[in-house]
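Recall the central idea of this unit: under ordinary conditions, the amino acid sequence of a chain determines the structure it adopts. In this exercise we apply that idea directly, starting from the sequence alone.
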Amino acid sequence: MTEQKKLNIYQKLLEVRWSVDHLKKNNKGYEYSYVSSSQTISALRQKMNEEGLLLVPQVNSYEVRENIIEKEYKGNIKKTKWYFTILNMSFTWVNVEYPTEVLICPWTGQGLDTGEKGVGKALTYAEKYFLLKFFNIPTDKDDPDAHQEPSNQEQQFERCPNCGGELYLREVKKAGKNQGKKFVACSNYPKCDYSCWDIDKHKKGGK
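Accordingly, the structure predicted from this sequence is:
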């Protein structure tokens, strides 16, 4: 009986890559859909188990930035403290059959929260995008961010006051009293949920 040839860690990772053709965006954001963390892990986990691969995350260092954000709501000013967490990480692939055979990949994770969940959000965000990018998994037939950043709006607005991301003009599509009304929102949604009806306030050179 011929003994089955053992695969090295790179061959096993390639088998995992072949197992997922693409992921469909089934989760809804402001005006776009996105792939969730659980959806990404579920698509890969069975094949990772079959190939005997472990993925071990490690936080090497971290930074937490605090920022007080003021928002006007029904004539009142509401102050909220946001915590922006940055994790310098590494993800290590381990071949269970030969535990000394590993592949270490440096990575960065970011999380934004008003409470103590910044680290957890950063870990979840980092794991999802590490897996998507490591295995070159497309999330639909187009670039996943192409429709979120209209080219005619480039450099039109100031940076997001919450996280420093880009702000873009949006329009309410949902039926209701605000349907058709325009506002600005952060391009980093759902990581950052900043939005504002006062469009002129965020224009470059605006008051």
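Strands lie at 27-28, 33-34, 53-73, 76-95, 102-113, 167-171, 182-186, 195-196.
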